[in-house]
Known about the structure:
It is built from one helix and 15 strands; from the N terminus they run αβββββββββββββββ. By secondary structure, the chain is mainly beta. A hairpin with a 4-residue loop joins strand 8 and strand 9.
Amino acid sequence: MIKNNKVFLIISLIAVVLLINTSCKDFGVPEYSFTVTHGEGIGGLPAAGTYSYKELSSINYEYIFIDDSERSPGVYINDSSVSAASAGTIIMYRDIEIFVGDVDFIGTWKLTTTDTSNEQKESIVVFSGNSLLEGTFTDDSDSGYTGTWTVENNIITMLYTERNDYKIVGSISPKYLSGTIFSTSINIGSWSMIK
């Protein structure tokens, strides 16, 4: 009887070891995706694409504008409104997406404004222009506002033609804008836009 118990125990241990070996092959250091998207006229590495890296890997990057050596492109990590340096190192600890280049505002954005009493309004804003640094916009709100926009140091400023006292200022990222609404230099609310 003791001999049978030993054989059973040995066979059970072998089965457990085999089961653990086959079912736990995915355990270990996690891998994360690293996705790079370039705007127009960008040179550097890593090239646009999606890569897979193990957790805590160091990814060196460096980008330039191909035709303008005096400026550095913005590097926006996970749609942050703060542009990182055009060269550096990223440590992988989750999935990461970066956009390299100037933020292109041209096109249609959904605007949500919230006044100081928390009342929200939505409208569609269409940005146009021949530059990524300035242009005009139309707002499809009830009043059909128009105006001009400029970008400097990753800050967008929108001035309304019909309302000299009304100004929207905020931070930029490739897919999301947000900031403060001013009327004669007094904060009257907040705003956000998604593309």
